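For this section, I looked closely at the sequence of one protein beside the tokens encoding its backbone, which the following lines show:
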Amino acid sequence: MKQSYTYSIAPKQFATAAVINSRTASPRPYRIGSFLGSVLMFGGLGVLAQMGLSGRTVPSLVVLWAVAAAIAGFFAMNVSTLAGYRRAISRSAYLASPRTMDIEPEGLRFTSEDTQSLHRWDRIASARIAHDTVHLSLDSVTFVPIPIAAFESPAEADEFVAMVNARVKEAAVAAGPGLVTAESSLAVTSSDAAPVESPVPAADVPPTRMRQAGSMVVDALRLTFFLRPRDGRPPGSWKAAFLLTVIGVLIPTAFGFILAGLDGEWNGWALASALMHVPLLLLAAIAAALAIGRTSEVPRLFVAGLLIEIVLDVLQYLAFMLTGPSESLYLPMLYGIVGPWMILAVAVFAARQVEPSLRRFGALASCFVILMPLSSAYRDRVLWTEKHDSADTTAARDRVTPATEAVFYKQPGLLTQSLEAIHPGKKGVIDVFFVAFGGYGSQDVFRREVDATTKLMAERFGAEGHSIRLINNRSTLNDLPIASKTSLRAALNRIASVMDKDEDVLVLFMTSHGSEQHRFSLQLWPLNFEEVDPAALRTLLDESGIRNRVVIVSACYSGGFVKPLEDPDTLVVTAAAADKTSFGCSNEAEWTYFGKAYFDDGLRNTRSFTKAFEIAQPLIVEREAKVRAEKSDPQMSVGANIAPRLAALEAQLEGKATPAPKQ
């Protein structure tokens, strides 16, 4: 066997060897813990991905459990890995031996009981302080740790770092421009050993603005996908935070330009919703910085959150455009995914700023508690929309709040005026009495549906003078009564007092959001409304004494109204099954998916409420398939007595002679 060997190792070969060594160095129990943590993390992320790709809107509790599993797995994996490394390193005899560092003209000399090495100034990359240790970087991988306790004071440690970096820079300049080669800085024996060369930058070159922007993009992507950014990144400055906030507004605006073109208009009402994440991210950054004990990190944590938000915005808008146009800003496949993903990414970055401890848990908890509203709150972020008619433009300009004194005293009069405008029908004729009930005040689509259906019922079913609109919308507070349980009771009672209960038909159309508990949403900030659920609606209808009923409920989970409202004299139509969501309720839409299919495509072409449902069903299925949404599965229940009554109404409206059914 030879006594001397000369060799070189390729970077990829060295990286592979390092990975293998890290796997085997950690004790087996810690490796098992790391493996189980990774299974839990990827399992939670897999569940979230499956829910997103299926287009299914799942219960928020399921999403939270999946997110919690991913987070718990992530930290179990990291804690086990780090604890294993610490355990293995603590047993290292090499690190246990004391050593001496001497500052010499040629470089830094390290001496221990068994080894001696000299790191020349032109072969050192840099020095910095991280936590309680001075890191003497020899290249991008190798470093020598020096505890700050070795110095007389932290100020002396700072002075040492500054001296090293100055000497390194001087040596690099003396070596000439470009990259120079560095001898291996690993410990060698006092005998002359053959050097191993690696590249070291000759001098610090100020990055250009393009390079800075490119670095920021890379950092944003790494943060979004739970990877560590490069050392010292992202930069923590309030200037960068302001710039990223502006960019965060420009992105949805640009997306609106793509959809609406130059003929669109600025939707200033969505600006507050578009910026909702900014104060929450700032509060989370402050809380996390306090938790880890480093308030100077607030700007950096804030910038990291803004970067993550921008990346997720761009990705979902790209997915939207690749999938095809839709009336909804967010693809159904992204419901419940983007918010939790952002919270998780921000929390992971904040927690990584400190070693595993109660401080890390505090940073994690702070982010989750403060940012939780972003996981479920609807955010209308369409800042540039298609122009609506002049009435819509005027309404948007004249919006007021229900808390103003003028509105407060005007509303009772508006309700009385609207009730008095409902006139009796004609004897011997089946008259249609129509109530349009728009519950959710923060989105104009429900107001538009109320207006459009009222006009349709007047044109196609002779409901002129027999209709009332109850709407929650700031633009109508000075003109129409609000939608509440009280106003609905008053409307039903008024209609019952002027209609022929044996002859005429009530058509009640309700449009809003709905909950998994089958509660119809009534919202108009800052008012608090009594709930309208299936039982409450059935009570209102029964108390009114109205016999012939057509009840149409357009809301998520509205199928929960079918069974409670079923009756021989009642037709019930809902936009979705009891456990399904409906779609198309974005602020800029003219109709929801169901409203468009049932009223605009169905009842505009037939005067049969049941045939309109048959027309609407395949149209809704086709539209939901186009945007990869789970089927909403609209429902219909036809009472035995109401069917012939509606058939007679259809014949009457079509001008066909047919006797009215006996009651």
